[in-house]
Amino acid sequence: MTDDRTMRERMLAGDLYIADDPEIGADLARAQRLCHRINTTDPTDPSVRPLFEELLGSYGVGAEIRPPFHCDYGTYVTFGARSFANFGLVVLDVAPVTVGDDCQLGPRVQLLTATHPLEPGPRRDKWESAEPITVGDNVWLGGGVIVCPGVTIGDNTVVGAGSVVTRDLPADVVAVGSPARVVREL
Questions:
Q1: Domains of the chain and CATH, by start
Q2: pTM, 2 dp
Q3: Could you read off the pLDDT of 54-105 as tens digits, one per residue?
Q4: Active-site positions?
């Protein structure tokens, strides 16, 4: 059976793809240009917000991301109203990344949707894929938190600094560690 989809179509469907596709390259270049402009503009300059609005799929009312900021594409990121991300947010948005309303993301948080095959052959051949990340409303991710592919974090949850979230977390809990484990309910 032949798969006639472009690599970009495969990527957007969450299937294995190879990133050396011209459409994917154009999307990456667009995001790199906008991230560069964001990261080199005076952060107090009012032109920063429109750059985020151009880069991201959605940038909520009252939202703030403090540069530096890095992403793969930007268009697959939804950043909720009144949400805040401190310095150094990294979003590998090969699949959709949704950050709800009223969230707080500490410095150097990483939201990583990209993944690779475990088998050495396909990985050597540069195949990759991605799984979406969803961060609910009113979530606090402490500094240095890493959220892995396919994870959903429920509303009102707090994730302690330096934690690595490898599995879904329910709403209304505190989770810490690597891998992050629920230590109490809120």
A1: 7-185 (2.160.10.10)
A2: 0.96
A3: 999 999 999 999 999 999 999 999 999 999 999 999 999 999 999 999 999 9
A4: 116
